[in-house]
Specification:
Strand content: 25-35%
Number of strands: 14
InterPro entries: Metallo-B-lactamas, RibonucZ/Hydroxyglut_hydro, UPF0173_UPF0282_UlaG_hydrolase
CATH superfamily: Ribonuclease Z/Hydroxyacylglutathione hydrolase-like
Order of helices and strands: EEEEHHEHEEEEEHEHEHEE
Helix content: 10-25%
Strand order of the largest sheet: 6-5-4-3-2-1-14
Number of domains: 1
Distance between the termini: 22 Å
Protein name: L-ascorbate metabolism protein UlaG, beta-lactamase superfamily
CATH architecture: 4-Layer Sandwich
Shape: globular
Amino acid sequence: MTSASVSAVDVRTTMKFTYYGHSCFSVEIKGITILFDPFISGNELARSIDLNTLHADYLVVSHGHFDHILDAVAIAKRTMATVIANFEITTWFGNHGITNVHTLNPGGKSGFDFGIVKCFLAQHSSSFPDGSYAGVACGFAVVSEEGNFYYSGDTGLSLDMQLVSQSTELDYAVLPVGDHLTMGVEDAIQAARLLETGKVVGVHFDTFPQIVIDHQNAIELFQAAGMDLMLLDIGEVIEI
């Protein structure tokens, strides 16, 4: 692994992936829990999840919209997790009394005790719940001894996704499939091609009426493209 690129590792096992609804999920690597985009208390579909027992060693936030950041401050304060996000978002956390932050803007990467995280641009708007500017929306590639994955955050389809596959050999990608506010299923298939992965975990679906999808149809469209789409139940844990 060189400092010039985010490279694939030679030996991969599996990592534990837990879905908490909408675009919130955690990945456990080397016993370290990385939680992404926490939106639980505001999600009527996630009532089975106890926010007060949720564990995180790291908290990754892709952008400032309420459905990705609503529970972030409370979780960060309780768990003392290190927050990874863009400059505006880490500054926002600092203004809320959280100083355990690590800033990554698009193009930047950094090493952590679980592996390497590189930040990529997402094609999406971003503002905090009060309407103030939250910087650019981001996605993140994670490289570790237990595998490599990419979380796009909320995004539209973009040829920039080729930059991810050029630097990182992915085991899977986490992509929005709900349409209207992000990519839909068809564009997510195109994104997976650009990312050069045939395994996708779908997020950002069913939470609101506008983004309810036909699960079976979505899975069959991916299958027809020679790909595997996983639409997990809230609270479901898989090894991936």
